[in-house]
Structures are given as C-alpha cells and as structure tokens.
Amino acid sequence: MEYFKRTLNTDCENILGRFQATASVRFEVFSAIWREINFSSIFYGPMEPNKCRVFTRLVLSVAAPYLLPPYAFQIRVGGLYLLYGLYSSQLTTPKEKVRLALKDWDELMRFQQDAVDAQHYDVVFILRKLLHERAFHFTAMPNPVKRRQVERQGQQLCETFIDRPSRAQELISTDMLEELANVHEHYENLKRVISAQTDQPILSLVKQNLVPKLRGAVLTYYNWQRNQTVTFFPPQSSRRAQLLALIKSKSYGQAVEHCASLIFKNKFNV
Asked: Which residue ranges does UniProt annotate as crossing the membrane (predicted)?
C-alpha cells in the first residue's frame, strides 16, 4: 500500500493545486474541477471487497490532513470538499469513515467559525453535512498504532499549500520576549542608578512597558493577518446579492423596453 500512498498524495496535490489556482473557496468551482478530471474514478478497478475497504481507508487517511493546519485556509477548504467527494463516492458498504483525532476537534470548530464569520456558507454546509452523516470517526490518534510498528517518515508537506507564519511571528518568540524583558529590566535599573547620581531626568528616555506593547503589536498584526487570509475570498452572500442585482437589472431593463414599445405603438397606432 506504500506505493498507492505516494500516488494518492500526488493525486490530492494535483486537484488541490488546481483549486488553489482558481483563488476561490466556492464548492461549485471545486466540483467543476472534480468532474473535469473524473476524480471519483479513483475507486474504480477490479478489487476484492476486503482490499477495496482497505484502499478506501487509505484514500481517506491521505486526504484528511489537508483539512487541518498548517495548510492555508483555501487548501483546508479544498481538503474539506475533497473529503466530502471521496466519502460520497466510495464504493464500500457501509461507508468507511474519516479518522479525526480528538485533539483536532477544536481546530475543526475554529475552522468552521472562521468560515461563518467570512460568510463562506457553502463551506459550513459541507462540513455540517459530513457531521450530520457521521462521516468522522473520532479517535485518540489520526492513524492506527500497531505493536512493533516500524517508525516511518511522516507525510511530506507541500510547501505551496502551507500557510506560512509572518516574519514578525518568526522573530518574536516567547524565549526572545523573556530575554528582552530581562535586558529591559536590567537597563531600567542602570538608568535609575545613573539618575540618582545626576540631576538630569535621563530615566524618561526608557520606553515604559516595552515587552507588553511589543507582544500586543504582534498579536494585533497576527489577528489582522488571519482575518485578511480568511476574508480574502468574497463571501457567498455578497456573490449571491450581486447575482440577484444583475437579474433584477436585466428584468427591469426588459420591462422598461417593453413599456416603451407599447407606448410607441399606442401613440402612432402601429
């Protein structure tokens, strides 16, 4: 099955890469790509029932990580749509479920809330539909752990799919803030000693609450960046409103044109 796992990773990266190129999070866009490459045919082929179930379990386990961090929001949406398509098109009865570790439940709920806040209602609908159909199997570990299991290398992450942290977050770590707080405290103490020996108020040159302000600035920027990442894609409601406005404008234009033609006919007895 190791060979199938590598090829499945390639197939998943292919469809998610195409979805990423559209710069959209709409389900209709993903479903068009799914139909174009006939991705449901991944389950086709002569296979014994027991092997078919094992293969289906492998397919779902390969696709499941794309729903979770560290992947970007759009890739996680694509991963959700991918799991929905695979779960719905599998040939096993009863259906194989998607393994989800309990530690990832909170992250999944935050993902759902982000989609709600950004008005990506098709994302919310697909996720709740999977939950309603009990498509997830909540477990202690994302993959089964066997006795004397040989330690293997984890799944390679596609760099273009990963939501990279900002440069500020990479630089401002907890250890660095603690070290900066110690240095700043030592600097303040030195300033107090010097101020006691002179009449000049040089202590006013010290930046008060430097570390808390720096940490607050980084958190503010992180939240802004996170909101920008989610709201970069236009919400479904605004797209629907634009479509309704376009339909109304066309209908109004046709009505005005029809009324004008009637007035012209009545006036000139045409």
From this structure: none
Q: Could you tell me the residue range of the domain that residue 146 belongs to?
A: 2-164
CB atoms < 10 A from the CB of 124, how many?
Answer: 19
Decide which of 135, 164, 193 is a domain's last residue: 164
Same domain, 124 and 173: no
Answer yes or no: do 39 and 159 share one domain.
Answer: yes
| Same domain assignment for residues 174 and 125 | no
Q: Closest Cα to residue 88, out of 122, 43, 24?
A: 43
* Amino acid present at 76: R
**Element counts in the chain: helices (H) and strands (E):** 10, 2
* pLDDT computed for residue 48 by the predictor: 85
The whole-model pTM stands at: 0.65
pLDDT by residue (tens digit) across 122-145?
999 999 999 999 999 999 887 777
Contacts 24+ apart (CB under 8 A), 164-172: 166/221, 166/222, 166/225, 168/218, 168/221, 168/222, 169/218, 169/222, 172/214, 172/215, 172/218
Model pLDDT for residues 101-116, shown as the tens digit of each residue: 999 999 999 999 999 9
